[in-house]
Design a protein that fits this description.
Elements: H1 3-15, H2 22-43, H3 47-56, H4 61-77, H5 82-92, H6 97-110, H7 114-129, H8 134-146, E1 164-167, H9 173-181, E2 185-191, E3 201-207, H10 209-215
Helix pairs in contact: 1-2, 2-3, 4-7, 7-8
Length: 218
Amino acid sequence: MSNIEMAEEISQEILDIQSLTDLNVEMLDRVIEKVGDNIDICTGIPIIRVWTTVHKVGKSLYDYIMCKRLLKFYAGCKDIDFEKKDKFYRKNIFGKKRKIGYLFLQLLERLDDDEKAFLIGKLYAYCAENEYDLRSYFRICKIVEKCYYEDLHFLREWESKETICAKNKFIPQEVMESMHSDGLISACGNDGGGFGSEDDEGIIYKLSKYGETLLNII
């Protein structure tokens, strides 16, 4: 019987006991550690090791994730212009601090990538300094929330181009379709293409106003 099979058998025996004793809890911790070691060897991804590390310092995985995201958000917006921040606060948040704070926590919780927390922090500073309203801010955050994070970096292709065809040499077509679906780009025509197989063709896309905003901060 392999190590992983033994770990599965022992853990099942322990979990079948309704009332866990201190000894059984310790045994289960060792089983989890053993399973974690095997997962690490098998995949190279320390999934369980991260969980057990967090568990041992008395914090839940949720607490750990939220702490990371709050720190990322702060790192993104910490250099905000003080006067612009104060003006944005008075216009959008004053008198609604608890409600807005709760909306921010919900937003951070829903993210599927910690780096998005840094991005929405930068977005907060950008929106305050450019006098956007809070509704526009949360609308753009919703786009960030829906997007596959790596797709956002393709926005940089529009730094040197006003439009890009659906079939092109710079961005995979599935990424173009996803960016359009998420509201980062909008259609503005169609290109029939040239005679060469490598020629750009298809729907012509330009950045939406939200895509332009995100391009300014990534």
